[in-house]
Description:
14 helices, elongated, alpha/beta, single chain, 10-stranded mixed β-sheet, binds 6-O-phosphono-beta-D-fructofuranose, binds adenosine-5'-triphosphate, binds magnesium ion, Rossmann fold, 2 domains, 14 strands
Amino acid sequence: MDDTVAQKIVVEKNSPRGTHFRRAGPRQKVYFESEEVHACIVTCGGLCPGLNTVIREIVCGLYHMYGVHKVLGIEGGYRGFYARNTIPLTPKVVNDIHKRGGTILGTSRGGQDTSKIVDSIQDRGINQVYIIGGDGTQKGASVIFEEIRRRGLKVAVAGIPKTIDNDIPIIDKSFGFDTAVEEAQRAISAGHIESESFENGIGLVKLMGRYSGFIAMYATLASRDVDCCLIPESPFYLEGPGGLFEFIEKRLKENGHMVIVIAEGAGQELVSESLRTTDQQDASGNKLLQDVGLCISQKIKDHFKRKKMVINLKYIDPTYMIRAVPSNASDNVYCTLLAQSVIHGTMAGYTGFIGGPVNGRHAYIPFHRVLVEKQNKVVITDRMWARLLSSTHQPSFMDHKDVMEDDTEKVGQTLQVNGKSHLGTTTAKARDTESIEEPSKPI
Ligand SMILES: Nc1ncnc2c1ncn2[C@@H]1O[C@H](COP(=O)(O)OP(=O)(O)OP(=O)(O)O)[C@@H](O)[C@H]1O
Ligand SMILES: O=P(O)(O)OC[C@H]1O[C@](O)(CO)[C@@H](O)[C@@H]1O
Ligand SMILES: [Mg+2]
Protein backbone atom coordinates (compact mmCIF):
# COMPACT_ATOMS: atom_id res chain seq x y z
CA MET A 1 0.00 0.00 0.00
CA ASP A 2 3.00 2.33 0.27
CA ASP A 3 4.16 1.90 -3.33
CA THR A 4 3.95 4.96 -5.55
CA VAL A 5 4.17 5.52 -9.30
CA ALA A 6 6.09 8.53 -10.65
CA GLN A 7 4.28 10.78 -13.11
CA LYS A 8 7.60 11.80 -14.67
CA ILE A 9 10.13 9.11 -15.42
CA VAL A 10 12.45 11.12 -17.59
CA VAL A 11 13.84 13.76 -15.26
CA GLU A 12 16.11 16.47 -16.61
CA LYS A 13 19.10 17.63 -14.64
CA ASN A 14 18.10 20.07 -11.87
CA SER A 15 14.39 19.76 -12.58
CA PRO A 16 11.85 18.82 -9.89
CA ARG A 17 11.26 15.10 -9.39
CA GLY A 18 7.55 15.71 -9.55
CA THR A 19 4.37 14.01 -8.51
CA HIS A 20 3.82 10.39 -7.50
CA PHE A 21 0.52 8.50 -7.34
CA ARG A 22 -0.57 5.54 -5.23
CA ARG A 23 0.10 2.30 -7.04
CA ALA A 24 -3.08 0.33 -7.84
CA GLY A 25 -3.57 -3.20 -6.60
CA PRO A 26 -5.19 -5.35 -3.94
CA ARG A 27 -4.80 -4.22 -0.33
CA GLN A 28 -4.57 -6.39 2.74
CA LYS A 29 -7.25 -4.38 4.52
CA VAL A 30 -10.58 -4.38 2.73
CA TYR A 31 -12.97 -1.65 3.75
CA PHE A 32 -16.28 -3.02 2.46
CA GLU A 33 -17.88 -6.31 3.56
CA SER A 34 -18.92 -8.29 0.47
CA GLU A 35 -22.58 -8.54 1.50
CA GLU A 36 -22.94 -4.82 2.16
CA VAL A 37 -21.70 -3.72 -1.29
CA HIS A 38 -24.26 -2.40 -3.73
CA ALA A 39 -22.37 -1.28 -6.81
CA CYS A 40 -23.51 0.45 -10.01
CA ILE A 41 -21.90 1.04 -13.39
CA VAL A 42 -22.65 3.83 -15.89
CA THR A 43 -21.19 4.64 -19.32
CA CYS A 44 -21.27 8.24 -20.65
CA GLY A 45 -20.09 10.20 -23.73
CA GLY A 46 -19.21 8.76 -27.15
CA LEU A 47 -18.70 5.09 -27.88
CA CYS A 48 -15.28 3.51 -27.56
CA PRO A 49 -14.05 -0.05 -28.19
CA GLY A 50 -13.72 -1.89 -24.87
CA LEU A 51 -16.67 -0.40 -22.96
CA ASN A 52 -18.35 -3.79 -22.72
CA THR A 53 -15.10 -5.43 -21.65
CA VAL A 54 -14.73 -2.98 -18.75
CA ILE A 55 -18.36 -3.56 -17.71
CA ARG A 56 -17.83 -7.33 -17.87
CA GLU A 57 -14.64 -7.24 -15.84
CA ILE A 58 -16.08 -4.98 -13.13
CA VAL A 59 -19.03 -7.35 -12.68
CA CYS A 60 -16.91 -10.53 -12.80
CA GLY A 61 -14.10 -9.01 -10.71
CA LEU A 62 -16.47 -7.88 -7.94
CA TYR A 63 -18.23 -11.24 -8.00
CA HIS A 64 -15.23 -13.56 -8.15
CA MET A 65 -12.52 -11.61 -6.31
CA TYR A 66 -14.67 -10.07 -3.57
CA GLY A 67 -17.90 -12.09 -3.48
CA VAL A 68 -20.00 -9.02 -4.36
CA HIS A 69 -23.29 -10.05 -5.94
CA LYS A 70 -25.25 -6.79 -6.12
CA VAL A 71 -24.26 -4.82 -9.23
CA LEU A 72 -26.65 -2.55 -11.14
CA GLY A 73 -26.20 -1.22 -14.66
CA ILE A 74 -27.50 2.34 -15.13
CA GLU A 75 -29.02 2.73 -18.59
CA GLY A 76 -28.30 5.63 -20.93
CA GLY A 77 -25.51 7.62 -19.24
CA TYR A 78 -25.85 10.14 -16.39
CA ARG A 79 -29.50 10.93 -17.02
CA GLY A 80 -30.23 7.21 -16.61
CA PHE A 81 -29.79 7.61 -12.84
CA TYR A 82 -33.08 9.47 -12.62
CA ALA A 83 -34.83 8.95 -15.96
CA ARG A 84 -34.24 5.35 -17.05
CA ASN A 85 -34.39 1.76 -15.86
CA THR A 86 -31.58 -0.19 -14.27
CA ILE A 87 -30.31 -3.65 -15.24
CA PRO A 88 -29.11 -6.17 -12.65
CA LEU A 89 -25.69 -7.37 -13.82
CA THR A 90 -24.34 -10.84 -13.07
CA PRO A 91 -21.39 -12.76 -14.54
CA LYS A 92 -23.91 -14.75 -16.59
CA VAL A 93 -25.53 -11.61 -18.07
CA VAL A 94 -22.16 -10.10 -19.07
CA ASN A 95 -20.39 -13.30 -20.07
CA ASP A 96 -20.13 -12.64 -23.84
CA ILE A 97 -20.49 -8.89 -24.06
CA HIS A 98 -16.79 -8.18 -24.64
CA LYS A 99 -17.20 -9.62 -28.13
CA ARG A 100 -19.59 -6.81 -29.07
CA GLY A 101 -18.91 -3.15 -29.84
CA GLY A 102 -20.77 -0.32 -28.10
CA THR A 103 -22.06 -0.52 -24.55
CA ILE A 104 -24.84 -2.81 -23.35
CA LEU A 105 -25.88 -0.04 -20.96
CA GLY A 106 -26.30 2.64 -23.61
CA THR A 107 -24.77 6.10 -23.27
CA SER A 108 -25.65 9.78 -23.71
CA ARG A 109 -24.34 13.33 -23.69
CA GLY A 110 -25.77 16.09 -21.51
CA GLY A 111 -28.36 15.53 -18.79
CA GLN A 112 -25.95 15.74 -15.88
CA ASP A 113 -28.13 16.75 -12.93
CA THR A 114 -25.87 16.15 -9.91
CA SER A 115 -28.48 16.56 -7.28
CA LYS A 116 -30.91 14.11 -8.90
CA ILE A 117 -28.07 11.64 -9.55
CA VAL A 118 -26.96 11.64 -5.92
CA ASP A 119 -30.60 11.40 -4.76
CA SER A 120 -30.92 8.29 -6.91
CA ILE A 121 -27.67 6.82 -5.52
CA GLN A 122 -28.91 7.50 -1.98
CA ASP A 123 -32.45 6.17 -2.59
CA ARG A 124 -31.20 2.93 -4.11
CA GLY A 125 -28.68 2.36 -1.34
CA ILE A 126 -25.75 2.28 -3.78
CA ASN A 127 -22.33 2.52 -2.10
CA GLN A 128 -19.89 2.00 -5.02
CA VAL A 129 -20.26 4.00 -8.24
CA TYR A 130 -18.15 3.06 -11.29
CA ILE A 131 -18.25 5.80 -13.92
CA ILE A 132 -16.84 5.03 -17.38
CA GLY A 133 -16.32 8.01 -19.67
CA GLY A 134 -14.11 10.70 -21.17
CA ASP A 135 -12.96 14.10 -19.92
CA GLY A 136 -16.51 15.48 -19.61
CA THR A 137 -17.68 12.40 -17.75
CA GLN A 138 -14.79 12.61 -15.28
CA LYS A 139 -15.66 16.28 -14.58
CA GLY A 140 -19.20 15.10 -13.86
CA ALA A 141 -17.85 12.28 -11.65
CA SER A 142 -15.84 14.77 -9.64
CA VAL A 143 -18.94 16.91 -9.01
CA ILE A 144 -20.90 13.80 -7.94
CA PHE A 145 -18.03 12.87 -5.60
CA GLU A 146 -18.11 16.36 -4.03
CA GLU A 147 -21.88 16.23 -3.55
CA ILE A 148 -21.60 12.78 -1.93
CA ARG A 149 -18.96 14.16 0.42
CA ARG A 150 -21.11 17.18 1.19
CA ARG A 151 -23.99 14.89 2.18
CA GLY A 152 -21.62 12.73 4.25
CA LEU A 153 -22.52 9.48 2.45
CA LYS A 154 -20.34 6.39 2.65
CA VAL A 155 -20.20 5.94 -1.11
CA ALA A 156 -17.04 5.32 -3.13
CA VAL A 157 -16.84 6.99 -6.56
CA ALA A 158 -14.35 5.68 -9.11
CA GLY A 159 -13.75 6.90 -12.66
CA ILE A 160 -12.60 4.72 -15.53
CA PRO A 161 -11.16 6.95 -18.25
CA LYS A 162 -12.49 6.24 -21.74
CA THR A 163 -11.97 8.00 -25.07
CA ILE A 164 -10.67 7.03 -28.46
CA ASP A 165 -9.25 10.55 -28.83
CA ASN A 166 -6.66 9.73 -26.12
CA ASP A 167 -7.03 13.27 -24.77
CA ILE A 168 -7.13 12.43 -21.03
CA PRO A 169 -4.01 13.78 -19.31
CA ILE A 170 -1.59 11.87 -17.03
CA ILE A 171 -2.50 8.32 -18.11
CA ASP A 172 -0.33 6.68 -20.75
CA LYS A 173 -3.14 5.92 -23.15
CA SER A 174 -6.89 5.39 -22.98
CA PHE A 175 -8.49 2.03 -23.74
CA GLY A 176 -9.97 1.60 -27.22
CA PHE A 177 -7.31 3.83 -28.75
CA ASP A 178 -5.26 0.92 -30.14
CA THR A 179 -8.35 -0.70 -31.61
CA ALA A 180 -9.40 2.58 -33.25
CA VAL A 181 -5.93 3.01 -34.78
CA GLU A 182 -6.06 -0.58 -36.05
CA GLU A 183 -9.51 -0.13 -37.57
CA ALA A 184 -8.38 3.12 -39.22
CA GLN A 185 -5.83 1.08 -41.19
CA ARG A 186 -8.66 -0.39 -43.26
CA ALA A 187 -9.84 3.05 -44.35
CA ILE A 188 -6.28 4.19 -45.13
CA SER A 189 -5.65 1.03 -47.09
CA ALA A 190 -8.81 1.63 -49.14
CA GLY A 191 -7.66 5.20 -49.76
CA HIS A 192 -4.29 3.91 -50.91
CA ILE A 193 -5.72 1.29 -53.28
CA GLU A 194 -8.16 3.78 -54.80
CA SER A 195 -5.45 6.41 -55.27
CA GLU A 196 -3.00 3.96 -56.87
CA SER A 197 -5.54 2.90 -59.43
CA PHE A 198 -6.30 6.28 -61.00
CA GLU A 199 -4.26 8.97 -62.71
CA ASN A 200 -3.05 11.41 -60.07
CA GLY A 201 -5.14 9.62 -57.48
CA ILE A 202 -5.58 11.20 -54.05
CA GLY A 203 -7.06 9.22 -51.15
CA LEU A 204 -8.28 11.57 -48.43
CA VAL A 205 -9.22 9.88 -45.14
CA LYS A 206 -10.85 11.74 -42.24
CA LEU A 207 -10.37 10.27 -38.78
CA MET A 208 -11.82 11.20 -35.39
CA GLY A 209 -9.93 13.57 -33.11
CA ARG A 210 -11.70 16.73 -32.03
CA TYR A 211 -8.84 18.55 -30.31
CA SER A 212 -6.11 15.90 -30.30
CA GLY A 213 -4.62 14.29 -33.38
CA PHE A 214 -3.37 11.06 -31.78
CA ILE A 215 -5.49 8.68 -33.87
CA ALA A 216 -4.41 10.37 -37.11
CA MET A 217 -0.74 10.45 -36.01
CA TYR A 218 -0.55 6.80 -34.92
CA ALA A 219 -2.64 5.55 -37.85
CA THR A 220 -0.24 7.36 -40.17
CA LEU A 221 2.86 5.97 -38.48
CA ALA A 222 1.41 2.46 -38.52
CA SER A 223 0.32 2.49 -42.15
CA ARG A 224 3.37 3.79 -44.10
CA ASP A 225 1.01 4.51 -47.02
CA VAL A 226 0.25 8.04 -45.85
CA ASP A 227 2.01 10.99 -47.48
CA CYS A 228 0.57 13.72 -45.30
CA CYS A 229 -1.10 13.80 -41.88
CA LEU A 230 -3.02 16.90 -40.77
CA ILE A 231 -3.96 17.35 -37.09
CA PRO A 232 -5.56 20.11 -34.99
CA GLU A 233 -2.31 20.85 -33.13
CA SER A 234 -0.41 21.67 -36.32
CA PRO A 235 -1.97 24.56 -38.27
CA PHE A 236 -1.41 24.30 -42.01
CA TYR A 237 -2.02 26.47 -45.04
CA LEU A 238 -3.01 25.65 -48.59
CA GLU A 239 -1.58 28.18 -51.03
CA GLY A 240 1.96 29.31 -51.84
CA PRO A 241 5.44 27.98 -51.10
CA GLY A 242 5.50 25.34 -48.35
CA GLY A 243 1.71 24.98 -48.53
CA LEU A 244 -0.42 21.85 -48.93
CA PHE A 245 -1.23 22.38 -52.64
CA GLU A 246 2.45 22.68 -53.55
CA PHE A 247 3.22 19.46 -51.62
CA ILE A 248 0.36 17.56 -53.29
CA GLU A 249 1.58 18.59 -56.75
CA LYS A 250 5.13 17.53 -55.93
CA ARG A 251 4.03 14.13 -54.59
CA LEU A 252 1.78 13.46 -57.57
CA LYS A 253 4.59 14.28 -59.95
CA GLU A 254 6.96 11.96 -58.06
CA ASN A 255 4.64 9.01 -57.34
CA GLY A 256 1.47 9.47 -59.40
CA HIS A 257 -0.73 9.10 -56.32
CA MET A 258 -0.91 10.05 -52.63
CA VAL A 259 -2.80 9.52 -49.38
CA ILE A 260 -3.76 12.31 -46.95
CA VAL A 261 -5.07 11.65 -43.43
CA ILE A 262 -6.91 14.49 -41.72
CA ALA A 263 -8.18 14.58 -38.13
CA GLU A 264 -11.69 15.99 -37.79
CA GLY A 265 -10.54 18.96 -35.71
CA ALA A 266 -7.71 19.98 -38.09
CA GLY A 267 -7.86 23.11 -40.23
CA GLN A 268 -11.17 24.35 -38.83
CA GLU A 269 -10.04 27.90 -39.59
CA LEU A 270 -10.00 26.97 -43.29
CA VAL A 271 -13.62 25.89 -43.32
CA SER A 272 -15.43 28.72 -45.03
CA GLU A 273 -17.35 31.16 -42.85
CA SER A 274 -20.62 30.16 -44.46
CA LEU A 275 -20.16 26.56 -43.37
CA ARG A 276 -18.85 27.30 -39.91
CA THR A 277 -21.27 26.87 -37.05
CA THR A 278 -19.21 28.57 -34.39
CA ASP A 279 -21.89 28.58 -31.74
CA GLN A 280 -23.37 25.12 -32.20
CA GLN A 281 -22.76 22.62 -29.42
CA ASP A 282 -23.77 19.09 -28.57
CA ALA A 283 -25.83 18.31 -25.46
CA SER A 284 -22.67 18.22 -23.30
CA GLY A 285 -21.46 21.62 -24.52
CA ASN A 286 -18.79 20.29 -26.89
CA LYS A 287 -18.38 22.46 -29.95
CA LEU A 288 -19.79 20.88 -33.12
CA LEU A 289 -17.26 20.81 -35.92
CA GLN A 290 -17.76 21.18 -39.65
CA ASP A 291 -16.67 18.43 -42.02
CA VAL A 292 -13.15 19.59 -42.76
CA GLY A 293 -12.62 16.57 -45.02
CA LEU A 294 -15.37 17.61 -47.43
CA CYS A 295 -14.19 21.20 -47.37
CA ILE A 296 -10.53 20.39 -48.07
CA SER A 297 -11.55 17.91 -50.81
CA GLN A 298 -13.44 20.67 -52.59
CA LYS A 299 -10.59 23.14 -52.21
CA ILE A 300 -8.07 20.63 -53.62
CA LYS A 301 -10.35 19.87 -56.58
CA ASP A 302 -10.91 23.58 -57.30
CA HIS A 303 -7.19 24.32 -57.11
CA PHE A 304 -6.15 21.64 -59.61
CA LYS A 305 -9.06 22.49 -61.89
CA ARG A 306 -7.75 26.05 -62.03
CA LYS A 307 -4.28 24.68 -62.81
CA LYS A 308 -5.83 22.40 -65.47
CA MET A 309 -4.18 19.37 -63.91
CA VAL A 310 -6.24 16.16 -63.82
CA ILE A 311 -6.64 14.64 -60.37
CA ASN A 312 -8.89 11.86 -59.01
CA LEU A 313 -9.76 12.49 -55.38
CA LYS A 314 -11.58 9.85 -53.29
CA TYR A 315 -12.82 11.04 -49.91
CA ILE A 316 -13.24 8.35 -47.25
CA ASP A 317 -14.97 9.13 -43.96
CA PRO A 318 -14.94 6.03 -41.71
CA THR A 319 -15.87 8.15 -38.64
CA TYR A 320 -18.06 5.89 -36.49
CA MET A 321 -16.64 2.66 -37.93
CA ILE A 322 -13.41 3.03 -35.95
CA ARG A 323 -15.14 3.35 -32.59
CA ALA A 324 -18.15 1.03 -32.97
CA VAL A 325 -16.04 -2.14 -33.23
CA PRO A 326 -15.26 -4.56 -30.37
CA SER A 327 -11.89 -4.06 -28.71
CA ASN A 328 -8.84 -5.92 -29.99
CA ALA A 329 -6.76 -8.34 -27.91
CA SER A 330 -4.42 -5.76 -26.41
CA ASP A 331 -7.30 -3.43 -25.45
CA ASN A 332 -9.14 -6.38 -23.88
CA VAL A 333 -6.14 -7.05 -21.65
CA TYR A 334 -5.86 -3.36 -20.83
CA CYS A 335 -9.60 -3.13 -19.95
CA THR A 336 -9.27 -6.14 -17.65
CA LEU A 337 -6.34 -4.66 -15.73
CA LEU A 338 -8.11 -1.34 -15.49
CA ALA A 339 -11.34 -2.83 -14.13
CA GLN A 340 -9.48 -4.99 -11.61
CA SER A 341 -7.29 -2.20 -10.31
CA VAL A 342 -10.27 0.14 -9.86
CA ILE A 343 -12.20 -2.58 -7.98
CA HIS A 344 -9.23 -3.09 -5.63
CA GLY A 345 -9.18 0.66 -4.94
CA THR A 346 -12.88 0.99 -4.13
CA MET A 347 -12.94 -2.21 -2.06
CA ALA A 348 -10.05 -0.76 -0.04
CA GLY A 349 -12.21 2.31 0.59
CA TYR A 350 -10.54 4.83 -1.74
CA THR A 351 -12.86 7.28 -3.46
CA GLY A 352 -12.71 10.27 -5.82
CA PHE A 353 -10.09 8.82 -8.15
CA ILE A 354 -9.62 7.46 -11.64
CA GLY A 355 -7.59 4.36 -12.38
CA GLY A 356 -5.10 4.24 -15.21
CA PRO A 357 -1.60 3.33 -16.30
CA VAL A 358 1.11 5.91 -15.60
CA ASN A 359 4.42 5.02 -17.18
CA GLY A 360 3.32 1.41 -17.50
CA ARG A 361 2.10 0.92 -13.91
CA HIS A 362 -1.55 1.19 -12.90
CA ALA A 363 -2.17 3.96 -10.37
CA TYR A 364 -4.96 5.80 -8.53
CA ILE A 365 -5.14 9.42 -9.65
CA PRO A 366 -7.33 11.83 -7.63
CA PHE A 367 -10.04 13.56 -9.71
CA HIS A 368 -8.64 17.01 -8.90
CA ARG A 369 -5.29 16.08 -10.48
CA VAL A 370 -6.91 15.08 -13.75
CA LEU A 371 -9.01 18.23 -13.78
CA VAL A 372 -6.12 20.67 -13.27
CA GLU A 373 -4.08 19.21 -16.10
CA LYS A 374 -4.60 20.36 -19.66
CA GLN A 375 -6.17 18.01 -22.22
CA ASN A 376 -3.62 15.60 -23.64
CA LYS A 377 -2.50 16.82 -27.07
CA VAL A 378 0.14 16.00 -29.64
CA VAL A 379 3.12 18.25 -28.93
CA ILE A 380 4.41 19.15 -32.36
CA THR A 381 7.87 20.04 -31.08
CA ASP A 382 8.21 16.60 -29.45
CA ARG A 383 9.84 13.47 -30.82
CA MET A 384 6.74 11.61 -31.96
CA TRP A 385 5.63 14.32 -34.36
CA ALA A 386 9.21 14.65 -35.60
CA ARG A 387 9.19 10.90 -36.27
CA LEU A 388 6.00 11.27 -38.25
CA LEU A 389 7.49 14.10 -40.31
CA SER A 390 10.51 11.93 -41.05
CA SER A 391 8.24 9.11 -42.11
CA THR A 392 5.95 11.11 -44.44
CA HIS A 393 8.40 13.85 -45.51
CA GLN A 394 5.48 16.27 -45.44
CA PRO A 395 6.09 19.97 -44.80
CA SER A 396 6.06 20.94 -41.11
CA PHE A 397 4.08 24.12 -41.93
CA MET A 398 6.24 25.79 -39.25
CA ASP A 399 9.24 28.04 -39.47
CA HIS A 400 12.18 28.10 -37.06
CA LYS A 401 10.71 31.01 -35.09
CA ASP A 402 7.47 29.08 -34.42
CA VAL A 403 9.43 26.10 -33.08
CA MET A 404 11.47 28.23 -30.69
CA GLU A 405 8.37 30.07 -29.42
CA ASP A 406 6.50 26.81 -28.89
CA ASP A 407 9.39 25.35 -26.90
CA THR A 408 9.68 28.35 -24.59
CA GLU A 409 5.99 28.15 -23.84
CA LYS A 410 6.23 24.46 -22.97
CA VAL A 411 9.09 24.91 -20.51
CA GLY A 412 7.13 27.72 -18.82
CA GLN A 413 4.07 25.51 -18.41
CA THR A 414 5.99 22.60 -16.97
CA LEU A 415 7.74 24.70 -14.38
CA GLN A 416 4.53 26.35 -13.37
CA VAL A 417 2.75 23.03 -12.85
CA ASN A 418 5.56 21.47 -10.90
CA GLY A 419 6.60 24.55 -9.00
CA LYS A 420 3.22 25.92 -7.96
CA SER A 421 0.35 23.48 -8.23
CA HIS A 422 1.96 20.38 -6.81
CA LEU A 423 4.58 21.56 -4.44
CA GLY A 424 3.24 24.94 -3.38
CA THR A 425 6.72 26.39 -3.38
CA THR A 426 9.14 28.03 -5.79
CA THR A 427 10.73 26.05 -8.55
CA ALA A 428 14.23 26.51 -7.18
CA LYS A 429 13.31 25.14 -3.75
CA ALA A 430 11.26 22.36 -5.28
CA ARG A 431 14.17 20.76 -7.08
CA ASP A 432 14.74 17.78 -4.87
CA THR A 433 11.23 17.52 -3.58
CA GLU A 434 8.57 15.12 -4.65
CA SER A 435 4.93 15.00 -3.67
CA ILE A 436 2.55 12.12 -3.35
CA GLU A 437 -0.95 12.64 -4.67
CA GLU A 438 -3.30 10.46 -2.63
CA PRO A 439 -6.79 9.49 -3.68
CA SER A 440 -9.22 10.27 -0.85
CA LYS A 441 -8.38 8.05 2.11
CA PRO A 442 -10.34 4.92 2.95
CA ILE A 443 -13.74 6.13 4.02
N1 LIG B 1 -17.98 20.17 -16.73
C1 LIG B 1 -18.86 19.18 -16.53
N2 LIG B 1 -19.46 19.05 -15.32
C2 LIG B 1 -20.37 18.07 -15.10
N3 LIG B 1 -20.75 17.17 -16.04
C3 LIG B 1 -20.19 17.24 -17.26
C4 LIG B 1 -19.22 18.25 -17.56
N4 LIG B 1 -18.84 18.08 -18.86
C5 LIG B 1 -19.54 17.02 -19.32
N5 LIG B 1 -20.35 16.51 -18.37
C6 LIG B 1 -21.26 15.37 -18.52
O1 LIG B 1 -20.52 14.18 -18.79
C7 LIG B 1 -21.18 13.39 -19.78
C8 LIG B 1 -20.24 13.07 -20.92
O2 LIG B 1 -19.59 14.25 -21.40
P1 LIG B 1 -19.13 14.40 -22.93
O3 LIG B 1 -20.31 14.26 -23.83
O4 LIG B 1 -18.35 15.65 -23.03
O5 LIG B 1 -18.27 13.11 -23.22
P2 LIG B 1 -16.87 12.65 -22.64
O6 LIG B 1 -17.08 12.00 -21.34
O7 LIG B 1 -15.91 13.78 -22.67
O8 LIG B 1 -16.47 11.53 -23.68
P3 LIG B 1 -15.93 11.70 -25.18
O9 LIG B 1 -15.59 13.13 -25.41
O10 LIG B 1 -14.77 10.80 -25.26
O11 LIG B 1 -17.04 11.23 -26.03
C9 LIG B 1 -22.42 14.14 -20.20
O12 LIG B 1 -23.56 13.57 -19.58
C10 LIG B 1 -22.16 15.57 -19.71
O13 LIG B 1 -23.36 16.24 -19.35
O1 LIG C 1 -21.13 12.28 -32.87
P1 LIG C 1 -20.88 12.03 -31.43
O2 LIG C 1 -21.44 10.76 -30.94
O3 LIG C 1 -21.24 13.18 -30.57
O4 LIG C 1 -19.31 11.81 -31.26
C1 LIG C 1 -18.31 12.48 -31.97
C2 LIG C 1 -17.10 12.72 -31.10
O5 LIG C 1 -16.85 11.69 -30.19
C3 LIG C 1 -15.47 11.33 -30.18
O6 LIG C 1 -15.36 10.10 -30.80
C4 LIG C 1 -14.96 11.25 -28.77
O7 LIG C 1 -15.61 10.22 -28.13
C5 LIG C 1 -14.78 12.43 -30.99
O8 LIG C 1 -13.65 11.98 -31.66
C6 LIG C 1 -15.86 12.88 -31.91
O9 LIG C 1 -15.71 14.23 -32.25
MG1 LIG D 1 -14.70 14.58 -24.26
